[in-house]
From TrEMBL:
It is found in: Mitochondrion inner membrane. Fe cation 1 binds at residues 150, 189, 192, 295. Keywords: Electron transport, Iron, Membrane, Metal-binding, Mitochondrion, Mitochondrion inner membrane, Oxidoreductase, Respiratory chain, Transit peptide, Transmembrane, Transmembrane helix, Transport. Its main location: mitochondrion. Coiled coil: none annotated. Fe cation 2 binds at residues 189, 240, 295, 298. It comes from Meyerozyma guilliermondii (strain ATCC 6260 / CBS 566 / DSM 6381 / JCM 1539 / NBRC 10279 / NRRL Y-324) (Yeast). This is Alternative oxidase. Its EC number is 1.-.-.-.
């Protein structure tokens, strides 16, 4: 009897979601796309979704002419180093940090609602994967979330580099090597995006949301960086923490075989060219490990830059040899996930 009552309750809730999706609110229609995408029966024009491409479609959409070398060569990441990357959080230490952290949490909540994602809070959430609910992640939902995330993630580095470039020209002085690292970060995030759009084709409404999101975020970040650059780098550092968390969840779902379409998906040539340790035999999981490692590095870089003054030397631009204490580098051998403190750096 209890089981029958639970089934009736679940049926009633399911009916409520279905009826609400017919009405005016777009958010409910978007967030319930998980049910339709899992059965591949979605027909709504306002669904935020991404079609997972098969191997023939991936090859058909591959660019094979006028391929140039990467402007910023990617450091080689070993598989063991990538496996060891994990979520680590920097506790807020002042009012600015707290505002940045809570701001990221708010925007993450909005993003999760739109993409139908729920962050696992315990082992039970991880094991069940929210199966049968609107929070259950499918291959197309993962690609939708990743593509939207990477389309936004490439903005901060480029905006910050642009403003520091103008600052250097205006004041007729060197930038202390911040521009190069910021441009590299923006380039890296764009390469993530270029890789994933070879694997999935976003719906027109997803593209529209990307247009709007980029426009709003780019202008807001531009104005904030003019006034409080330290806050902006801390904000990005917290964003990258969440990115590491999300990709770690994806790796877990790949390991537990919850995403069969990704099991035999080939890594696109653009990724093999950029991450030189990948090859034609590399798996989708190998790719995700590299992307997660990149996000972990951005987390470290931005938390570090938030600890520095804008006139300090960028410690990631040049590796200092023969010193008696560890210093930052572009690889994964020496890391401080929550950022390097100024007192520990040779500036």
């Amino acid at each position: 009897m209890i089981r029958l009552a639970e089934m009736r309750t679940a049926s009633a809730m399911h009916g409520t979601f279905r009826s609400s999706a017919v009405g005016v609110p777009v958010l409910m229609r978007i967030s319930t796309a998980a049910k339709s995408t899992s059965s591949n029966s979605s027909t709504s024009l306002l669904d935020i979704s991404t079609k997972v491409l098969n191997e023939s479609d991936i090859l058909k959409h591959d660019d094979k002419s006028f391929i140039t070398h990467n402007l910023f060569p990617h450091p080689e990441f070993g598989t063991k180093e990538c496996e060891e990357v994990k979520y680590e959080h920097r506790e807020p230490r002042n009012v600015s940090d707290t505002i940045a952290f809570r701001g990221v949490n708010f925007f993450r909540w909005c993003f999760d609602m739109v993409t139908g994602y729920k962050k696992p809070r315990n082992d039970h959430d991880l094991e069940t994967g929210f199966k049968g609910t609107r929070w259950e992640m499918t291959e197309n939902k993962w690609l939708t979330r990743i593509i939207f995330l990477e389309s936004i993630a490439g903005v901060p580095g480029m905006v910050a580099a642009f403003l520091r470039h103008l600052h250097s020209l205006r004041l007729l002085k060197r930038d202390r090597a911040w521009i190069e690292t910021l441009l590299d970060e923006a380039y890296n995030e764009r390469m993530h995006l270029l890789t994933f759009i070879k694997l999935g084709q976003p719906s027109w409404f997803t593209r529209f949301i990307i247009y709007v999101g980029q426009g709003v975020f780019c202008n807001a970040f531009f104005l904030c960086y003019l006034m409080v650059p330290k806050y902006c780098h801390r904000f990005v550092g917290y964003i990258e923490e969440e990115a590491v968390s999300t990709y770690s969840h994806l790796v877990y779902e790949l390991d537990t075989k919850k995403l069969p379409k990704f099991d035999h998906m080939r890594v696109p040539p653009v990724a093999i060219q950029y991450w030189t340790e990948l090859d034609e035999n590399s798996t989708f999981r190998d790719l995700i490990l590299r992307v997660r490692a990149d996000e972990a590095k951005h987390r470290e870089v931005n938390h570090t830059l938030a600890n520095l003054d804008s006139t300090d030397r960028n410690p990631f631009a040049m590796k200092i040899e023969e010193v008696d204490k560890p210093q930052p580098e572009n690889g994964l051998k020496v890391q401080r996930p929550t950022g390097w403190e100024k007192k520990d750096l040779i500036l």
